[in-house]
Amino acid sequence: MIDLYYWPTPNGWKITIALEEMGLPYRVVPVDIGRGAQHDAGFVRISPNRRMPAIIDDEPLGGGAPIDLFESAAILQYLADKSGQLLPKSGQARYEVLAWVAWQVAGLGPMAGQLHHFKDYAPTKIEYAIQRYSNEVNRLYGVLDARLEGREFLCGAYSIADIASYPWVLPEAHGQDLTHFPNLDRWYQTMRARPAVQKGRKVGVELARPMDDESKKVLFGQSAASVKAATKT
Ligand SMILES: N[C@@H](CCC(=O)N[C@@H](CS)C(=O)NCC(=O)O)C(=O)O
After folding, report:
1. Is pLDDT of 232 > 60?
2. Cα 33 to averaged position of ligand 1 atoms, centre (Å)
3. Are residues 112 and 144 in the same domain?
4. Cα 139 to chain center, whole Å?
5. Is 223 a member of any domain?
6. Is 71's C-beta closer than 6 angstroms to any atom of ligand 1?
7. What would the pLDDT profile of 15-61 be if each residue is shown by its tens digit?
8. Which atom of ligand 1 is nearest to the CA of 73?
9. 33 lines ligand 1 (CB under 6 A)
10. In a domain, 206, yes or no
11. Structural domain boundaries enclosing 96
């Protein structure tokens, strides 16, 4: 059984969607990131970056001792290898999928995350920061749109690359109009209609809470000092 350390956010949804698509059994272990559970010593042992998602699989690929993993890109690749689905086994096709997963975790995710922060949560509105991250998210939507010209999915066949990007395409929250991105719009509608995507998006909805003051303090007040403090708990 796979234990999924999870909270219902875009990075968490990547893994619930993948698990649902692959039909792998899993159990959700909530990590209440608005209350600091990402800093609990037990969780930090499997996720040294103090971020969810993370997994422990006690029936790992290849047998042997349980495997634990953090970082959604590594988890997606592991689950694809374990299930033999949504990632070609070798060659150009495999590395192309992994490149698009890397693109999402290194580009779309962090840029969209900063846009949310400065647009919706920052205590003061800094126009330059909002503009900078809006432009970058707009550019990245353009990259997706160009890539999806003549392709049903990002790498031709449906793959973990699509699953990585989908939860981070949030047109309303990002102030983006999908009518300007017709290929992305078509892909977005295809993705959201998939039963496993709908199921994965609903996992743990009952856990979600609006961003309150305590969450802001926990999420936006971190530094190296909080890492040191957390390891002692
Ligand atoms: N690069 C990481 C990012 C994970 C991440 O940022 N997770 C967020 C929730 S979406 C989190 O755990 N935040 C807790 C915090 O900021 O303290 C991945 O792809 O897994």
Report:
1. no
2. 9
3. yes
4. 19
5. no
6. yes
7. 999 999 999 999 999 999 999 999 999 999 999 999 999 999 999 98
8. 19
9. yes
10. no
11. 91-198
60 and 143 part of one domain: no
Does 57 fall in a domain?
yes
Residue 23 lies in a domain: yes
Amino acid letter for position 130: I
> Is the CB of 16 inside a 6 Å radius of any atom of ligand 1?
no
CA of 96 to the centre of ligand 1 (A): 24
Ligand 1 atom 15: the closest Cα is on which residue? 219
Half-sphere exposure of 147 toward its Cβ, with a 13 Å CA cutoff?
A: 20
The first and second tokens of residue 186, run together, are 């078509």
User: Do both 99 and 163 map to the same domain?
Assistant: yes
177-196, pLDDT tens digit by residue? Answer: 999 999 999 999 999 999 99
Instruction: List the CATH number of the domain containing 192.
Output: 1.20.1050.10
The identity of residue 195, as a single letter, is P
- Residue 149 alpha carbon to ligand 1 centre in Å: 30
Among 116, 119, 121, 110, CA closest to 51: 110
Nearest-5° Cα angle at 69, 210 to 71: 50
What is the count of structural domains for the chain?
2
Contact present, 115 and 137 (Cβ < 8 Å):
yes
Atom of ligand 1 nearest to the CA of 39: 17
Q: Which atom of ligand 1 is nearest to the CA of 10?
A: 10
